[in-house]
Amino acid sequence: MSAARAGTHAVVAGLGSYLPPRIVTNDDLAAHLDTSDEWIRSRTGIATRRWVERGVSTSDLAVEAGMLAMKAADDDMVDAVVLATTTPDRLCPATAPEVAARLGLTGRAAFDVSAVCAGFLYGVAVSAGLVASGAATRVLLIGAETYSTILDPADRTTRAIFGDGAAALVLRAGRADEPGAIGRCVLGSDGEHSELINIPAGGSRQRSSGVPAAPAEHYFQMRGGDVYRHAVERMTAAALESLELAGWEPGDVDRFVPHQANARIAAAVAERLGIEPARVLGNIAEVGNTAAASVPLLLTESAADGRLEPGHRVLVAAFGGGLAWGATTLVWPHVTALPSR
User: Fold this and answer.
1) Is 198 a catalytic residue?
2) 301: domain CATH number?
3) Confidence grade of residue 4 (pLDDT, cut at 50, 70, 90)
4) In whole angstroms, what is the distance from residue 112 CA to residue 123 CA?
5) Active-site residue, selected from the candidate residues 9, 26, 289, 312
6) In this prediction, what percent of the chain has a pLDDT beyond 70?
7) Which of 9, 26, 117, 185 is catalytic?
8) Which of 14, 64, 162, 264 could form a disulfide with 170, with the two C-beta atoms 3.0–4.6 Å apart?
9) Distance CA 227, CA 168 (A)
10) Where does a domain end: 174, 206, 235?
11) From which residue to which does any coiled coil extend (predicted)?
12) Domain co-membership, 53 together with 162
């Protein structure tokens, strides 16, 4: 490979994650809602989740995860910061520039990516594009969410599912054939079903209508049954396409990293792909669905605790609002991962 082509692929160089200290159990929710530990566990696989305390925002979590990722990569001179989030600090401006400034990266490119639970994989593709174009040689990619701030206090379903957290990767320029190189990203969307996962109020559509929003319209809404069907179908299809692009069969996958939306969704996708449960990574029982932070949080924790080892062939897939979905592959490298729990 020529020198001009040697640094055109994004390679994982370090990972870090941060979870807020407040643990919310199913029994905590049952004390205020018509639900129970058994009801939540049987339908979602979730036992606990982390929520921020009052006054803590998405940028606060993103900064913590970003610092750890740069420490893990032993590199604080990244050229760009990409923040995948559904819960920015404000509608305007983007949250990433503030995160970059707090990390000592003022002057670098910094912007948000919004694709809900598929946001991290969209961020991977964007970051890889920055590297391939030569616009950056090192990118700090962060997935961070404070979903507890947008959940309806009276909605037992969404309140049980979602948690807060952040995780980050440093991606450096490298070769396509080295461990850690990001494979081709398969991305897709279907805006005809945008109403399945949404916050109706606060955007230009509701504001320009002249009709005041009902209180519940300011909170996150999801039609669970329809989402389940689309998630399984879209994640499976994207994963199969990603495997084909990598030249892998499902049996070649050492570790499947599905977005932690629901334990039943992850199991259904793995079954359709023919990947045995022992090769499927998960942490939803402890942290719930952390949306754009889900995949990098699982990668960081798994690399740190030994479930993910150098040389493992890894398949990643996610699905979220938009509708939006994605998948990619990589061979796991020797890399430092620093979770903060």
Assistant:
1) no
2) 3.40.47.10
3) very low
4) 9
5) 289
6) 98
7) 117
8) 14
9) 27
10) 174
11) none
12) yes
